[in-house]
């Protein structure tokens, strides 16, 4: 597993305590899991995602991500409606391991209250949280 | 250390069944045809299955070669924690294969199946006697179905009391089947944290038990190999709120002839005949998971039940409060025959079985605790749980230790369970192993601990001796190939 | 005691190493008031005594070997070739645990992978699991799976011509849940009446047995159409898989889940168990399957091998959210079924199935010629219903004295069907046996 200094934490996304990230994309937001989360899970073998059109509140479980011997739930960083899912993950779940912030994205959501994005953690706050977990 | 048991040997490759054979061969002798052909109407008829055609010799070679890639209790020591891989007596196989049993149709009138009914009746009584409870049903097909039966009894009892309950308490050391079985009955599992000494503390149960909680599921001895010493106090707390106490008897092999589950406050206990009562595991089954109960819960047991009437035995459906049927017929009868044979063979020596099983586990614990971390250094029951904490510094994990044991000719212990111990190594030697075997196992584990320090690659790259090395499980799960 | 090897000397050395005085002290952590007040009181037998005792019990049983049993109803008397019995008794298969350590379990794993494959080929399905307990539990699991697939629907329907014992087990599994089971009526001709399907709300899945409990072959193509029209999962089940040696495979008729009892495939009847619960489905539902799955992969050297896979569905990982609570299954029985299918081969399986049908048709015609009524017209495999004249129950009892079991009375399951009996003929019944039966019922 990676040392904290090796974990990739880009500046252009916001983070949640459950290790999801969100990034504005046009009118919508892209959602995925962080490099820290994928590293903890190990080789990802399956990602279960909702259907487009499904609606969720902030904090709702929207799917699961599986490694060989573990299942983790995925939680919504913000409430909204799913407008796209990353269909490439069906055949290539390993994209979440190899490119968690780019090709390994999971959902695009249309958010009721875009200001919710600003409530999420920035890089520094998330990194602080991870340091807290290490101790 | 004596020469290791594990060695090299000629291993034969073997293709799939369908990579062998040739159209028109057969390994079966059809009876002589004595009636005319009467084909199906064409619109119903299919082409028949696309099976390979093999001669009898091909069939024998195929499965004989496959069998040599397996490791069984008959091959060597199998210290798989909480699985009780004890010796499977051969006389049990003889009894189960008596033509009177194997050829019996389950729906003949009861006067034509008295032998089977008597066996079921007596087995249920013997199991209840060993448990210290009042009645038993052998209908559940395996441990998990025994748990389900127990949870169904809980649900039926509370409905009968006039109020269904929605929650169930389950300790964090529990086997995964416990919450899964409870969930099938609509109960929400509430986790109870294990106390600092590896056992439940009454306060933790007190804090969670309420009148919407159906009861508690406790594995006793628990999966850390420790007897739940506060079981009575916990039972009192649960009973005070009219809850019920379920004991998972996966580890009954530790306490036969010693513990009285009724006195301990347990209302329902399931037993695994394929663990405690010596029936073979068969590479994953069939098992049998009888459920034992106290008197007031007897009306809820699965039906039909075998009852004694005069000199004979009969099947009775007359149990209006019964949870119903769990098996198309009466359960895995062939497994019951084996367990019954074992119980009659052992008699009261079942207590010796538990004593020796516990002695063996404590002996291993004492002889290994200086080289493997022992999270709970207290007297254990029939299994002891170590961790890989001392090996971590050499970048060696529990998995590596387990795989290295294979090279030395032992089946690995249960690993990474219970979840409350990080990197758990759970060793259950059972009563079956001789002192020499156990000493050889201990010497091997100590040698592996030394290798972990001096030459960790030996562990990290283990095993090297079996037919295959470590498998790519990620590929298996990412791109499932489930048929040929 | 021959299963325990410690001598007094061993015990004393080991007790000393542990640091306790005697065996009782090993149990000092157990509170006294949890201990037995009275010692065990069980009889103990020598192997000699056990042999006599068990022979006496087995002797008080009717077996297919000395009775002419014309009964099926979910348990079938088929011949088991000695070669499969012999191979199955290899202790490497019998005394192994669940193959969690794949490096030393490749025999079980490849054997079960082959079983899964042959089951898929037999039923025309994409995936089959490594086994469930029995046919009854398999149907219950199939219905629960249909509810999971539907995500929010709460009702399932089961044909009243599914084996009555399977329906009872379904009832047990569904009783504590929030889901409902609706029973579909039967038509006069002995097949399932699907005409009311569109009046059932919230329908997740429908289970139809074929051949059904009366032995009649259902029109699965039409059933599938009607069930899919309601947006429900089409489940077909069976108690006699040998029928698929000559019948169209349910997979070819668009079944979503196919499940049932596999006892016929080389497993002794053994008073009803152990048999094997067969469970197969379309590929798209693979992550909803209950039970274990064996998958093919490669080892560190790239060599072909097998592992238990997609385990995240199962209780040891997903706990209360698992697709089923099953852990131990019927692995050795699945091995037996695999061996049996391989021993027969495609050619033998087809021939044996045809022979079962031919013999059953012979008896059916002979009974008809003797003036008895065959109340249900649809084609059958190796079981069919006969209506005997009033008062036949006494004759049926009298035939037992002559070591003939003339079928199963249906009135126990369908009170309106007095004098109706379900008869079964497999390859183990000869023409002479059947002629004798016909002669007796005529007299």
How much is the radius of gyration of chain C in Å?
A: 25 Å
Highest-level CATH class of the largest domain in chain B: Alpha Beta
User: Fraction of residues of chain C in helices?
Assistant: 25-40%
Structural class of chain C: alpha/beta
Q: How much helical structure, as a percent, in the residues of chain B?
A: 25-40%
- For the record, give the distance between the C-alpha atoms at the N and C termini of chain C, rounded to a whole number: 58 Å
What share of the residues of chain C does DSSP label as strand, in percent?
Answer: 5-15%
CATH topology of the largest domain in chain C: Aspartate Aminotransferase, domain 2
Number of strands of chain C: 14
Itemize the secondary structure elements and their pairings:
The complex is a heterotrimer of chains A (135), B (484) and C (443).
Chain A: E1 14-15, E2 20-25, E3 28-33, H1 35-41, E4 44-48, E5 55-56, E6 61-67, E7 71-75, E8 80-85, H2 88-91, H3 95-98, E9 107-111, H4 116-119, H5 123-134
Antiparallel strand pairs in A: 1-2, 2-3, 3-9, 4-6, 5-8, 6-7, 8-9
Chain B: H1 56-67, H2 90-96, H3 99-102, H4 114-131, E1 135-137, H5 143-160, E2 167-171, H6 177-184, E3 188-192, H7 202-208, E4 213-219, H8 231-240, E5 244-248, E6 268-270, E7 291-293, E8 305-309, E9 312-316, H9 333-346, H10 350-368, E10 384-386, H11 398-407, E11 414-415, E12 425-427, H12 435-454, H13 457-460, H14 473-478
Parallel strand pairs in B: 2-3, 2-4, 4-5, 5-6
Antiparallel strand pairs in B: 1-7, 6-7, 8-9, 10-12, 11-12
Chain C: H1 8-18, H2 47-59, E1 68-69, H3 82-88, H4 91-94, H5 106-123, E2 127-128, H6 135-150, E3 155-159, H7 164-174, E4 180-184, E5 203-209, H8 220-229, E6 233-238, E7 257-261, E8 277-281, E9 294-298, E10 304-308, H9 315-318, H10 331-369, E11 383-387, H11 392-401, E12 404-405, E13 408-409, E14 420-424, H12 431-442
Parallel strand pairs in C: 1-12, 3-4, 3-5, 5-6, 6-7
Antiparallel strand pairs in C: 2-8, 7-8, 9-10, 11-14, 13-14
Helix pairs in contact in C: 3-10, 5-10, 6-7, 10-12
């Amino acid at each position: 597993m990676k040392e904290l200094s090796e974990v990739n934490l880009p500046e252009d996304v916001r983070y949640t305590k459950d290790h999801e990230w969100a990034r504005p994309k046009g009118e919508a937001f892209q959602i995925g899991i962080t490099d820290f989360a994928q590293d903890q899970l190990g080789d990802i073998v399956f990602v279960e995602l909702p259907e487009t059109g499904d609606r969720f509140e902030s904090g709702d479980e929207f799917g699961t991500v599986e490694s060989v011997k573990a299942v983790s739930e995925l939680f919504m960083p913000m409430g909204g409606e799913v407008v796209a899912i990353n269909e490439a993950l069906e055949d290539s779940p390993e994209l979440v391991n190899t490119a968690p912030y780019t090709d390994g994205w999971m959902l695009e959501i249309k958010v009721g209250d875009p200001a919710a994005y600003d409530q999420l953690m920035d890089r520094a706050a998330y990194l602080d949280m991870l340091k807290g977990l290490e101790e | 250390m004596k020469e290791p048991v594990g060695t090299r040997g000629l291993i034969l490759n073997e293709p799939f069944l369908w990579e062998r054979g040739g159209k028109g061969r057969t390994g079966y002798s059809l009876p002589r045809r004595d009636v005319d052909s009467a084909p199906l109407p064409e619109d119903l008829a299919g082409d028949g299955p696309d099976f390979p055609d093999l001669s009898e010799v091909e069939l024998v070679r195929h499965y004989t070669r496959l069998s040599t890639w397996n490791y069984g209790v008959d091959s060597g020591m199998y210290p798989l924690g909480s699985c009780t891989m004890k010796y499977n007596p051969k006389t049990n196989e003889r009894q189960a294969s008596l033509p009177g049993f194997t050829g019996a149709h389950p729906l003949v009138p009861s006067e034509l199946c008295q032998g089977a009914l008597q066996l079921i009746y007596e087995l249920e009584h013997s199991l209840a006697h060993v448990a210290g409870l009042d009645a038993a049903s052998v209908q559940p097909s395996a441990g998990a179905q025994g748990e389900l039966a127990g949870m169904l009894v809980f649900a039926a009892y509370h409905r009968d009391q006039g109020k269904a309950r929605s929650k169930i308490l389950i300790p964090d050391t529990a086997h995964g089947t416990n919450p899964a079985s409870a969930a099938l009955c609509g109960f929400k599992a509430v986790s109870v944290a294990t106390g600092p000494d590896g056992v439940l503390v009454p306060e933790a149960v007190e804090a969670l038990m309420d009148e919407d909680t159906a009861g508690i599921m406790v594995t006793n001895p628990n999966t850390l190999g420790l007897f739940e010493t506060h079981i009575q106090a916990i039972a009192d707390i649960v009973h005070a709120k009219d809850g019920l106490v379920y004991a998972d008897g996966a580890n009954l092999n530790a306490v036969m002839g010693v513990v009285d589950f009724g006195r301990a406050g347990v209302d329902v206990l399931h037993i695994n005949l394929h663990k405690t009562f010596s029936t073979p595991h068969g590479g994953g089954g069939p098992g049998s998971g009888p459920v034992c109960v106290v008197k007031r819960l007897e009306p809820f047991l699965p039906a039909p039940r075998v009852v004694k009437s005069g000199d004979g035995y009969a099947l009775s459906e007359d149990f209006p409060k019964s949870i119903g049927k769990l098996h198309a017929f009466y359960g895995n009868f062939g497994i019951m025959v084996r367990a019954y044979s074992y119980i009659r063979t052992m008699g009261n020596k079942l207590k010796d079985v538990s004593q020796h099983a516990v002695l063996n586990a404590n002996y291993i614990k004492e002889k290994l605790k200086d080289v493997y971390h022992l999270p709970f250094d207290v007297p254990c029951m029939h299994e002891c749980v170590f961790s890989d904490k001392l090996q971590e510094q050499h970048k060696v994990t529990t998995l590596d230790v387990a795989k290295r044991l294979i090279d030395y000719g032992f089946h690995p212990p249960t690993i990474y369970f219970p979840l409350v111990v990080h990197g758990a190594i759970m060793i259950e030697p059972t009563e079956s192993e001789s002192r020499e075997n156990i000493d050889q196992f201990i010497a091997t584990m100590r040698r592996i601990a030394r290798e972990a320090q001096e030459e960790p690659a030996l562990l990290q790259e283990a095993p090297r001796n079996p037919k295959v090395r470590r498998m790519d499980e990620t590929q298996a799960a990412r791109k499932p190939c489930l048929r040929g | 005691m021959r299963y325990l090897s410690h001598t007094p000397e061993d015990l004393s050395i080991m007790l000393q190493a542990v640091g306790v005085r005697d065996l009782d002290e090993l149990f000092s952590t157990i509170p006294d008031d949890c201990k037995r007040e009275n010692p065990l009181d069980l009889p103990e037998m020598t192997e000699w005594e056990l042999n006599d005792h068990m022979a006496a019990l087995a002797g008080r049983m009717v077996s297919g070997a000395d009775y002419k049993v014309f009964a099926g109803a979910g348990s079938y008397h088929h011949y088991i070739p000695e070669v499969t019995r012999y191979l199955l008794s290899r202790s490497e298969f019998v005394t192994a645990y669940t193959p969690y350590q794949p490096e030393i379990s490749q025999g079980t794993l490849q054997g079960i992978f082959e079983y899964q494959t042959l089951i898929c080929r037999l039923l025309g399905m994409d995936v089959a699991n490594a086994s469930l307990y029995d046919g009854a539990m398999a149907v219950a699991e199939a219905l629960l799976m249909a509810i999971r697939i539907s995500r929010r629907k709460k009702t399932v329907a089961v044909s009243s011509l599914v084996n009555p014992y399977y329906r009872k087990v379904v009832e047990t599994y569904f009783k504590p849940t929030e889901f409902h089971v609706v029973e579909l009526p039967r038509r006069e001709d002995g097949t399932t009446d699907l005409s009311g399907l569109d009046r059932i709300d919230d329908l997740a899945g429908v289970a139809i047995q074929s051949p059904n409990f009366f032995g009649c072959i259902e029109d699965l193509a039409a059933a599938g159409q009607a069930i899919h029209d309601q947006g429900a999962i089409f489940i077909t089940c069976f108690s006699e898989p040998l029928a698929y040696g000559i019948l169209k495979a349910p997979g070819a008729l668009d079944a979503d889940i196919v499940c049932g009892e596999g006892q016929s495939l080389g497993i002794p009847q053994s008073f009803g168990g152990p048999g094997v619960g067969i469970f197969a489905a379309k590929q798209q539902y693979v992550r909803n399957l209950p039970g274990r799955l064996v998958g093919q992969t490669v080892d560190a050297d790239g060599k072909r091998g097998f592992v238990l896979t997609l385990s995240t569905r199962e209780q040891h990982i997903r706990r209360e959210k698992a697709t089923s609570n099953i852990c131990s299954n019927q692995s050795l029985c699945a091995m037996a079924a695999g061996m049996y299918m391989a021993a027969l081969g495609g050619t033998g399986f087809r021939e044996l199935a045809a022979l079962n049908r031919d013999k059953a048709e012979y008896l059916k015609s002979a009974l008809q010629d003797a003036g008895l009524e065959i109340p249900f017209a649809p084609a059958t495999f190796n079981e069919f219903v006969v209506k005997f004249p009033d008062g036949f129950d006494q004759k049926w009892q009298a035939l037992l004295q002559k070591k003939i079991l003339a079928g199963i009375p249906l009135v126990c399951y369908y009170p309106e069907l007095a004098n109706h009996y379900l008869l079964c003929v497999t390859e183990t019944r000869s023409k002479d046996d059947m002629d004798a039966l016909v002669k007796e019922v005529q007299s």
